Amino acid sequence: MPKSKAKKRFILNKKLCYSGDEMNLLKKNISTTERLVRAILGVIFLASTTQVQGTLMYLAAIVGIILLLTAALGTCPAYNVLGIKTNSTAPEKKEIASNKKTTKKKRK
Length: 108
Prior knowledge:
single chain; mainly alpha; two-stranded antiparallel sheet; 7% strand; elongated
């Protein structure tokens, strides 16, 4: 018997989402400037692990690694859950501009 491809359902951003094509957790949602800042802070946190000891050293290392990973991937899983997007995408701007043109034509 062939296995059916059942999609798992879950709620994200108050919408019912399905795992698979509809939802991409690795979709870029961090701007280039924020990625640069995260990378710099990640290096600073990792470098600070040589100056501190104990629990604080491990905490700084974990935060540094997370910052470097999110900077490298260009995505923040917390931003996906909260619906935050700091990068701008050109197609959305073009779509807004084209909508403004059509509304001006309708007024005439």
